[in-house]
Amino acid sequence: MSLQNWSLIYIFIAFLAANLPWLSSRRFIVGPQGEKSLAWYLGEWLAMYFLAGCIGMGMEWKLDGHLSPEGWEFYVIALCMFAVFAIPGFIWRFNVLPLLRKS
Predict the structure, then answer these.
(1) Membrane-spanning residues where (predicted)?
(2) What does the radius of gyration of the chain's CA atoms come to, in whole angstroms?
(3) Measured between alpha carbons, how far is 87 from 90 in angstroms, rounded to an integer?
(4) Closest to 89 (Cα-Cα) out of 42, 51, 50, 57
């Protein structure tokens, strides 16, 4: 498989990981069912950011054989991109779902 295909797979994994906390009302997707506070959603989202980062580092290690040194700017930009990826799930949870429950 080419490097471009691996990149697209990783982008899909990151998009899925960014939206997963917003789509489930269970704690960390397998925990008990119930209403979560915004802090729970953000905590799960941040945990998914670190998980997606670890998957990306593992893919880089497997494909290149080493990890490229990155500065703090790289991680801030990655966090901002992860936040952009999470917009559809956030809108679904806090805008669309309440409107559907009302009607």
Answers:
(1) 6-25, 37-59, 74-94
(2) 16
(3) 5
(4) 42
Instruction: Spell out the SS3 assignment of 31-65.
Output: CCECCCCHHHHHHHHHHHHHHHHHHHHHHHHHHHC
Instruction: Note the pLDDT tens digit of each residue in 49-77.
Output: 999 999 999 999 998 889 999 999 999 99
Helix (H) or strand (E) holding 10: helix 3-23
Q: Which residues pair with 26 in a beta bridge?
A: 33
Give how far the C-alpha of residue 63 lies from the chain's centroid of Cα atoms, to the nearest Å: 22
How does pLDDT run across 20-47, given as a tens digit for each residue?
998 888 777 777 777 888 898 999 999 9
Opening angle at CA 10, ends 6 and 57, nearest 5: 95
Q: Please report, for the chain, the start and end positions of each structural domain, with discontinuous segments joined by +.
A: 3-102
